Amino acid sequence: MIHPCILSGGSGSRLWPLSRKAYPKQFLQIFDTESLFQKTCRRVSGPGFGAPLVISNQDHRFLCGEQMVEAGLEAGRIVLEPQGRNTAAPAAIATLMVEREDADGLILMLPSDHLIADEAAFLDAVRAGEQAARAGYIVTFGIRPSEPHTGYGYIHLGEAIGASEPQGEDVRQVLEFVEKPDRERAQAYLDEGDYVWNAGIFLFSARAMRAAFEAHAPAILQRAEAALDAATADLDFLRLDAARFGEIENISFDYAIMERTGTVACVPMDPGWSDLGSWSAVREVFPADKDGNASLGDSLFLDTRDSFVYSAEASVAVLGLSDVLVVNTRDALLVAHKDKAQDVKRIVERLEADNRIEAIEHKRVYRPWGWYEGLSQGARFQVKCIMVKPGAQLSLQSHVHRAEHWVVVNGTAEVTIDGETQLLGENQSAYIPLAARHRLANPGRIPTYLIEVQSGSYLGEDDIIRYQDIYGREGTSS
């Protein structure tokens, strides 16, 4: 059996302002009704695959679980990383977890935020690499290049190491891994024909990977095992021990294992792949008009060439420009030359340095119980729209600096204030005095929507004291 391991710890800073730290690109539904995370889970949920093992940033734990449920996907295990540790650490964790259940099992490790248009071609490639993985090879998957791209690492292919599969995919020797080249070298790789882009997708047996870590990165394996042995259950999640996990070297799987071991093979493939690593990459996904312009949302191009517009709500008009990227959300606007797409992360770094909330959250902020969205704010007041999912409830909490007034606009709300509970319907309201212990719940079968008016001397989200919480967030503001 193949055990999918889906890595979901990235923040997608190059796709700001749409992708943000609290809601990164893998959870966005910008291509159709499914997010990239859901597409990835579904891609490896068919016959021959076990339930997915998701390794996630702990801040995104509820997003992972909720999106799997929404997509009707089999619930696998969600392992929480206490802090970011590149890709070698999750590879070691996945190896140990699968080995304990299925010593001869294969692990397919793949990012959660890549787009694959031809999923049948991708699965053919996985099947082509399966025999080599069972024979002890660490199999990587290379994308046949369509252009001399300088933003990807390359893999130099050698001779075939086995017969072609019926689908026509050869398993090739790997001669070397090459860092991101300049344009001249990238063109030479394209002309030579024996180089492919490194997609960061790997297939290997738990047994072979343990041996590789023991030979080339034993300290990573030992510390990963210590973090796993001391892990604790947290609702439906497995929380790795923070102290032990923090001792693991912050290094990529490529550097720790792939470039050091000699038992590496590669399956070249062409499944319509994109890592969506920048807005220029996103632009390539959408069909362009005769002038090379593409868009998602309400847009108008006049005397404009080779440009891209994304707009969540407003109509965007571009006049007399070329090679520009325009990304418009409710609270932020990006305008950039397409050659600077890789540098968008510098904007995020600046926003973080200035403690700007636009680097972290959207106007709509998701929580395990639903979401809230800021509507208006002024001196000593703030207005929000709140949505509570059916059967969900907020924590029992109080505020030191603010009072709140809730008006139900749709659905039913169960409101508890200082031990007294009342049921509110549409157009009914409740007042929560400063310091009152209160809880909001939705006992109905449809989402409940409320308008919340806050008033007080301080209106920050950290003015919350939690006493009880079904999501295990006592004492926190998330």
Report what the structure shows.
The chain is 23% helix and 33% strand. With 478 residues, it is of the alpha/beta class. The protein folds into three domains: 273 residues, Spore Coat Polysaccharide Biosynthesis Protein SpsA, Chain A (Alpha-Beta Complex); 59 residues, no CATH class; 105 residues, Jelly Rolls (Sandwich), CATH 2.60.120. Strands 20-21-22-29-24-27 form a six-stranded antiparallel beta sheet, with no helix packed on it. A five-stranded mixed beta barrel has the order 6-9-7-8-12. The two termini are 37 Å apart.
The CATH homologous superfamily of the largest domain corresponds to: Spore Coat Polysaccharide Biosynthesis Protein SpsA, Chain A
As a percent range, the share of helical residues equals: 10-25%
Predict the CATH topology of the largest domain. Answer: Spore Coat Polysaccharide Biosynthesis Protein SpsA, Chain A
CATH class of the largest domain: Alpha Beta
Low-confidence stretches: 164-168
Q: Indicate how many domains the architecture comprises.
A: 3
Average pLDDT confidence is 92
Strand content: 25-35%
Query: Which descriptor suits the 3D outline?
Result: globular
Main sheet strand line-up: 20-21-22-29-24-27
Largest sheet: 6 strands, antiparallel
Secondary-structure content class:
alpha/beta
Query: Radius of gyration from the CA trace?
Result: 25 Å
Count of beta strands: 30
- Helical segment tally? 11
CATH architecture of the largest domain, please? Alpha-Beta Complex
End-to-end gap: 37 Å
